[in-house]
Amino acid sequence: xxxxxxxxxxxxxxxxxxxxxxxxxxxxxxxxxxxxxxxxxxxxxxxxxxxxxxxxxxxxxxxxxxxxxxxxxxxxxxxxxxxxxxxxxxxxxxxxxxxxxxxxxxxxxxxxxxxxxxxxxxxxxxxxxxxxxxxxxxxxxxxxxxxxxxxxxxxxxxxxxxxxxxxxxxxxxxxxxxxxxxxxxxxxxxxxxxxxxxxxxxxxxxxxxxxxxxxxxxxxxxxxxxxxxxxxxxxxxxxxxxxxxxxxxxxxxx
Length: 254
Known about the structure:
Elements: H1 11-22, H2 34-42, H3 57-61, H4 68-81, H5 86-92, H6 100-110, H7 113-117, H8 121-125, H9 131-141, H10 145-156, E1 181-184, H11 192-201, E2 216-219, H12 224-233, E3 237-238, H13 240-249
Parallel strand pairs: 1-2, 2-3
Helix pairs in contact: 1-2, 5-6
């Protein structure tokens, strides 16, 4: 029979959290694959994600398979990851119900971890695309003592806690200000995350679901239930060419 460990400090859970934290969609720290994370945890070097930023590199250098170059590459990967934007950090923390879309929404709405920490449930619910379940989950996570201790250690390690600052003189960064653009289906010229990043970079939001507050739906091949929902609500539906024009001008067709 399969064995599950539900204890927060269970080594299997610790390894899973660290692997997720270092993954490409989160803090993107090269050199933290499954085997290395397993080694670091089993040897007592890591017991949570904050420990990534205080590794004992001298000890690692004494291990078989870790030459000077590999240790320096590991150090460089960890050091540069401190500058990842807030959305990446929030996703990396593995907060229940917080995927990349929600993490970016939280980052763009609150701009700094301090403001997110002090947010009420009502303030979290007010962010379009969250809803009561996600808002309650984030609020609860931010009030658990072991999570607050973890965040304090990340602060002390110099991890970036802010969303990127948008240049107010950059016209491209303002054309979608106040707009909520949902992306669905397969686009020829954009990956899903690329399309969302283009929207956010221009001041817009890109939640994961369609609502009456949605400005437009960008629908590629296989739009599915989001396309159906947009049609029901009368939300404008854009093809890829219209999306390109929207990114350039901020204007909806018609």
